[in-house]
Write a structure and sequence with these properties.
Elements: H1 2-9, H2 13-30, H3 36-50, E1 54-64, E2 67-78, E3 82-87, H4 94-107, E4 111-118, E5 121-128
Parallel strand pairs: 3-4
Antiparallel strand pairs: 1-2, 2-3, 4-5
Helix pairs in contact: 2-3
Length: about 130
């Protein structure tokens, strides 16, 4: 019972599980050392093969008082509800989490997954937009 209750508190658990499974599969196949764009292309292929809907390079406007003051381009939006941002770095950084939070707010999305492809394997952080319910 506790495992079920824990899963209920996770935002989009089934979709998140599918996304991360695809990320681990890509890493297991290709290993470390590619660019973010190459991992993105491989993930697009993996998502297509698995029947997972996604969009790449998603434009997200940044607005202030209904005026456009900037723009973002998120790596991937999966199933219209999970923002996926890819990084090829060795250290999980606050600046990257802050970037994803900005994307979530601009895109009115609830959950983002920041995926790091490192020498040690795939690392990730789930980031919640508490402003979006």
């Amino acid at each position: 019972m506790e495992a079920n209750n824990a899963n209920q508190s996770i935002v989009h658990p089934e979709s998140s599980f599918k996304v991360m499974g695809a990320c681990f599969n890509v890493y297991n196949e290709l290993g470390w050392g590619l660019s973010e764009k190459q991992y993105q292309q491989a993930l697009a292929k993996e998502f297509t093969d698995r029947g997972i809907r996604f969009r790449r390079e998603v434009f997200i406007p940044l607005e202030y008082k209904q005026v456009n003051v900037g723009r973002y381009f998120a790596d991937l939006v999966v199933e219209g509800k999970i923002l996926l941002e890819l990084k090829v770095v060795s250290v999980l950084g606050y600046i990257h989490a802050k970037q994803v939070l900005g994307y979530l707010r601009g895109g009115n999305l609830r959950i983002g997954i920041l995926v790091y492809f490192t020498k040690e394997g795939v690392k990730y952080r789930r980031i919640l937009n508490i402003r979006e319910s």
